[in-house]
Specification:
The chain is an alpha+beta fold. It is built from two helices and nine strands, in the order αββαβββββββ.
Length: 144
């Protein structure tokens, strides 16, 4: 089962748990009537405890590794980022930092890497990879 399928199953089970908790679910098949049990908060926790381990590998403590390949041009460097991990890579996050600091603190947030980036001369590219279990590698950087 893929992580996306397991996550969808987890959401479905939790939604069902809330529906059952809100009101009794009655299934009527002719002469046979079945009443579902109401789930308490502890019941929802049990559902989550059963589902989450199938989505996340809690024993995975290893961060992914990423690399940058670049070619220098007239305007700076064209940088392509890639990453690998035994469990699977969720994505690569980056931010471009200009030579001149931003006037507002915290203006430069990490964004999801989707295509090669042009890093202009004197600017700096900072990136990190994240695996499907949430492990994040230390940041790397390259200047234009």
């Amino acid at each position: 089962m893929s992580a996306a399928d397991a996550f969808g199953l987890a959401v479905s089970l939790l939604v069902l748990a809330y529906l059952v908790y809100a009101d009794r679910l009655v299934l009527d098949a002719g002469d046979l009537t079945t009443r579902a049990l109401e789930l308490s908060i502890s019941g929802e926790a049990k559902v989550a405890a059963l589902v989450w381990p199938s989505i996340f590998d809690f024993s995975d403590q290893t961060a992914p590794t990423s690399t940058a390949a670049s070619t220098r041009g007239r305007g700076g460097r064209l940088v392509t980022l890639s990453a690998s991990d035994d469990a699977g890579v969720s994505g690569i996050e980056y931010k471009l930092l200009p030579k001149k600091p931003a006037s507002k603190a915290g203006k430069h947030h990490f964004r999801r890497f989707t295509k090669p980036l042009l890093v202009k001369r004197r600017d700096r590219l900072v990136w990190r990879a994240v695996d499907i279990n949430g492990n994040t590698e230390a940041t790397h950087s390259v200047s234009g």
